[in-house]
Every structure is written in C-alpha cells, then in structure tokens.
Amino acid sequence: MTYYSQSEAIRMTTFSNRELVEDRLFIDSPSGLYEFDRQREQIRSINGAYLKSHLIRGLKVRV
Question: What is the C-alpha separation between 23 and 11, in angstroms, rounded?
C-alpha cells in the first residue's frame, strides 16, 4: 500500500526476464478509482471489476 497525494493506492510492477513490462498505480480517491500508467504517464478512471481482474492477472506467476 502506498499513497498518491492523500489517497490510498496500490502499485503493481510486472517484470519479464528482469525487464520492466508494466508499472501501474491504482488510486482510490473520493471521486472514484483511477489507474495511472507510470511508463506512459497516463491516467484513466476504472471500475472495480477491472481492478479486480487486473490485480488477479498480475498476481499469477508464469514459469
């Protein structure tokens, strides 16, 4: 858990062969849920179902 401004956030980084593939910050603010792509420096609003599926997919380990 981390903070973005004064809002709680979850940072998810994904690596493949020691190379950074994804670096995203999921922000829970009073106005809604947001996803901030740190590589592209883009922010967008998301819904809870997208957050859930993205986090579960990111937690799966591929060997």
Answer: 7
